[in-house]
Write a structure and sequence with these properties.
By secondary structure, this protein is of the alpha+beta class. The chain has helices spanning 13-20, 86-99, 115-120; strands spanning 2-6, 40-46, 49-58, 69-77, 105-111, 124-132, 136-144. Strands 1-2-3-4-5-7-6 form a seven-stranded mixed β-sheet, sandwiched between helices.
Length: 150
């Protein structure tokens, strides 16, 4: 049985670390803005085990002409639970949650190997690829939750 609920930022580390920061110090799992009151962290529990996380920050990217912007960071599903639709469930939960709050745009920096996953969910690439040192090639991706605002 799966359940998605809000969690504390530090609770995300048990998934962020092995998936996104493997081999790096645990402190690297702490993101700027994690503990702001405007930030939310969602955990996906499968049989009461935390197996997926996503963090959502109110953060404006100047390449978008939107007042209401959200940035997703730290989207991760434990490897043994990937390819089962859990990442899709987590992303759709965020979209539904923030659409109800009248947010307009979600954007993020996607790792190159994750781009096809996000494209299947309706996200599109904006601009050219760029390198984040020690992590790899990324693309900015976006999705309008409510169309016609740009």
């Amino acid at each position: 049985m799966k359940k998605i609920q809000k969690i504390e930022s530090k609770a995300t580390f048990v998934v962020r670390h092995p998936v996104l920061r493997n081999g790096k110090p645990m402190e690297s799992c702490c993101f700027d803005g994690d503990d702001l009151s405007t930030s939310n962290h969602f955990g996906l529990f499968y049989d009461k085990k935390l197996v997926g996380v996503v963090s959502v920050f109110k953060n404006t990217n100047t390449i978008f002409n939107f007042e209401h912007q959200l940035q997703i960071r730290g989207m991760a599903i434990l490897p043994e639970f990937q390819k089962n639709g859990l990442g899709t469930d987590l992303m759709k939960h965020c979209e539904t949650y923030y659409t109800a709050k009248n947010e307009v745009l979600i954007w993020f920096n996607a790792r190159e190997n994750a781009v096809p996953f996000y494209e299947k969910l309706g996200y599109s690439i904006v601009g050219a690829p760029f390198d984040i040192p020690e992590i790899g090639i990324h693309y900015i991706m976006k999705k309008e939750l409510v169309s016609g605002y740009e």
